[in-house]
Amino acid sequence: MYSILSQGRQGFRDHQVWGKMRYPLRRLTAMLKLYDLNLSPNAFKVRAVLHELELPFETIPVDIMQGGGQTPEYLAKNPNGKVPVLEDGEFVLWESNAIIKYLARLKPEAGLLPEDARPLARLDQWLFWQSGHYYTPIINLAVEKMFKPMAGKEPDAVLVASLTQDFLRLTQVLNQGLTGREFLLGRISVADFALASTLVPRQQLGLDISAFPAVAAWIERMEARESWKKAK
């Protein structure tokens, strides 16, 4: 394993150039640690990217449902009390899309992060859209259709119908973005892992994507990858 070379508190100094981007040098350090929850699509995407990059890591389960995210020790790592969290030596990072971009920079030769400004901006567009829009109906449907029944509560049928329509409308946006492409940027990138992971619980939530042929073909390609299978 390798880690960021830092100069005490003065931040990162040593670097090497890959295309037009500057990447920190890596040095031997402890194993990457992923604070994980198997049910979380956001944690799944990090596991999948770690496997895609063939970066060794260990997982540390966090039982969010039983308050594992609210302990003082965990809140010191992520004050939001959520998963995933990545530890690389003394460097601690939360927010799944920030984590997968960081991981891609650790192994730039894998090509999961573009070098030029425009494709990088397009990648960020999809990452922001995933976290700010596409994930919202999915997580709220999970609350209604999975977590409420687990707690002995009835789902809100009107809300479920509304959230399902939101999901279908947003999936059409994704379908347009994938039409004529194998992957969101033409070649595979962390954007594909971020968006595809959002669809991991679709069957449990009763969501049908067959009306979106570009999305259906793309998710089939993603699910066929060894990294995806290993992340399950």
From TrEMBL:
It comes from the Bacteria. Residues 30-111 form the GST N-terminal domain. Keywords: Transferase. InterPro entries: Glutathione-S-Trfase_C-like, Glutathione-S-Trfase_C_sf, Glutathione_S-Trfase, Glutathione_S-Trfase_N, GST_C, Thioredoxin-like_sf. Residues 116-232 form the GST C-terminal domain. GO terms for molecular function: transferase activity. Belongs to the GST superfamily. This is Glutathione S-transferase. The lineage of its organism: Bacteria, Candidatus Blackallbacteria.
